[in-house]
Design goal:
There is one protein chain. By secondary structure, the protein is α/β, with parallel strands linked by helices. The chain folds into two domains: 11-147, Orthogonal Bundle (N-utilizing Substance Protein B Homolog, Chain A); 184-442, Vaccinia Virus protein VP39 (Rossmann fold), CATH 3.40.50. Helix content is 42%, strand content 13%. The protein is built from 16 helices and twelve strands. The strands form two sheets. Strands 5, 6, 7, 8, 9, 10, 11 and 12 form an eight-stranded mixed beta sheet that branches. Strands 2-3-1-4 form a four-stranded antiparallel beta sheet, covered by helices on one side. It starts with 10 loop residues before the first helix and ends with a strand. 45% of the residues are buried. It binds S-adenosylmethionine. The site of S-adenosylmethionine (SAM) has 18 residues, from helix 12 and strand 6. Residues 146-443 form the SAM-dependent MTase RsmB/NOP-type domain. InterPro entries: MeTrfase_RsmB-F_NOP2_cat, MeTrfase_RsmB-F_NOP2_dom, NusB-like_sf, NusB_RsmB_TIM44, RCMT, SAM-dependent_MTases_sf. Keywords: Methyltransferase, RNA-binding, S-adenosyl-L-methionine, Transferase.
Length: 443
């Protein structure tokens, strides 16, 4: 049983935030897993709702800004920290995040961080250092922020990839965009304009509704209980729309859960077979469809074993990926994934896509998508497949069909969205996930 620090308000939150940060950056454990109310980190589960929200905010802010926070720490700690002083790193990093990026009274953060160091045998000898470093940060806050402004806020490995693929200027815009948490986007079954008015939302060129700066519970909003809409990022809503008219068509969604795209396909009039390998996620998919009052044949199984009796009109493959396009929502991704994961996932996607194209009849469409920003997991997979398979052709997405989204459509007619797109005057209502989507046709 780990010690708890409930005797001093705020201390247990800081200790939990530091533990979770350690798990993400040192052990590559996903943040969602640790913040799961049922199966998550035990210290986190023991907190009340308000403290959980604060812990989540501290960890998220720390991960979002970590390269800049570390640059500030190296300016503030003049003698290098002892090798392996990771526990101290996490105490300092979370405190710097609270002071610079969260609305927490700064002196309280310093006192708590010093107390936190004092109570941990690994950090006790550094408690004076914690005090000195954080007090200096309070005094030199603006200078410190200015000094690290040119440091990219994403990890170096990822920033280098962005620069190589998109160029420096675009890479900078994407890295900056991921500093602001994503707004909430909704996909409606029908009557988007009506629902935009009812919910005070903005209708986006993707067809989605955007609730800017909304921080309540979506389940309390009008239309949730009756299943009129579901939460889905604007970029994630694009792939399922690329099939064109789906009325009466037989379509399989091969990687279906939690089901945002399955729901779109059904709402567009298709007869859908939804395949999902994970039992838990398949159960969530079923629950979501029940709430939305939409029905599909749900198969809990491996897509490689799925072979319909008759060839299909369409297949959607929204494949597992590194998720590097979702950092506004999942700021841990860039710390838990790396280049080796990208290469491995690209291979899995290529195998899945090769299988997917065998499931449609001649003339049938395959939409392949994922939420990675890396062309190895998108453009390259498709280029390789087209080079080896003459029975397939790309059906270009046309810019004139997507007014307002022209910059997201490449010269080859593929969707390539990034978090820097859909920019609005206010950062909190800007951006979309990084997504790749392409339409292929079987000749
Ligand atoms: C990116 S998510 C899909 C998101 C979903 N399309 C949506 O819009 O809600 C990928 C999904 O593929 C599932 N998956 C991974 N490998 C699979 C396989 N071999 N067969 C079927 N599903 C698989 C994962 O469990 C995960 O739920």
């Amino acid at each position: 049983m780990e010690p708890r620090f409930d005797d001093k308000p705020g201390l247990e939150v800081r200790a939990t935030a530091a533990k979770i940060l350690a798990a993400v950056v040192d052990k590559k454990i996903s943040l969602d897993g640790m913040l799961d109310p049922a199966h998550g980190n035990p210290s986190y589960k023991a907190l009340n709702d308000a403290d959980r929200a604060l812990t989540r905010a501290i960890v998220s802010a720390t991960l979002r800004h970590l390269p800049r926070i570390e640059a500030i720490m190296s300016l503030l700690v003049t003698d290098p920290l002892p090798q392996g002083a990771r526990a101290l790193h996490h105490v300092l990093a979370t405190a710097v995040a609270q002071i610079l990026y969260l609305d927490t009274p700064s002196h309280a953060v310093v006192d708590l961080a010093v107390e936190q160091a004092n109570r941990d045998p690994r950090n006790r000898r550094f408690s004076k250092l914690v005090n000195a470093v954080l007090r200096r940060l309070l005094r030199e806050r603006e200078e410190m922020l200015a000094a690290v402004q040119s440091v990219s806020p994403v990890p170096a490995w990822f920033f280098e990839r962005l620069v190589t693929v998109y160029g420096r200027e675009a890479a900078d815009r994407m890295a900056e965009a991921q500093l602001t948490p994503a707004p909430i986007d909704l996909t409606v079954k029908a009557d988007a304009e009506l629902w935009a008015e009812k919910l005070g939302a903005k209708l986006l060129p993707t067809g989605s509704l955007r609730l800017a700066a909304f921080d309540g519970s979506v389940t309390a909003l009008e239309g949730f209980a009756e299943g009129a809409w579901w939460v889905q990022d604007a970029a994630a809503a694009l792939p399922a729309q690329l099939f064109g008219d789906l009325k009466g068509k037989r379509v399989a969604d091969l990687c279906a859960a939690p089901g945002g795209k399955t729901a779109q396909l059904i709402a567009a009039g298709a007869n859908v077979i939804a395949v999902e390998q994970s039992p838990n996620r398949a159960a969530r998919l079923r629950e979501n469809l029940t709430r939305l009052n939409l029905s599909a044949e749900v198969i809990n199984g491996d897509l490689f074993e799925f072979r319909p009796e008759e060839l299909l009109d369409g297949v959607l493959l929204d494949a597992p990926c590194s998720s590097t396009g979702t950092t506004r929502r999942h700021p841990d991704v860039l710390w838990t994934k790396g280049p080796a994961d990208i290469a491995k996932l690209a291979e899995v996607q290529a195998r899945m896509l090769r299988h997917a194209v065998t499931l449609v009849k001649p003339g049938g469409l395959i939409v392949f998508s994922n939420c990675s920003l890396d062309p190895l997991e998108g453009e390259q997979v498709v280029a390789d497949l087209l080079a080896e398979n003459e029975g397939l052709e790309r059906v270009p997405v046309r810019k004139e069909d997507w007014p307002g989204l022209e910059e997201a459509i490449s010269d080859l007619g593929e969707f390539r969205t990034t978090p820097a797109m859909l920019a609005a005057t206010n950062a909190y209502s800007s951006g979309m996930d990084g997504f790749f989507a392409v339409v292929l046709r079987r000749r």
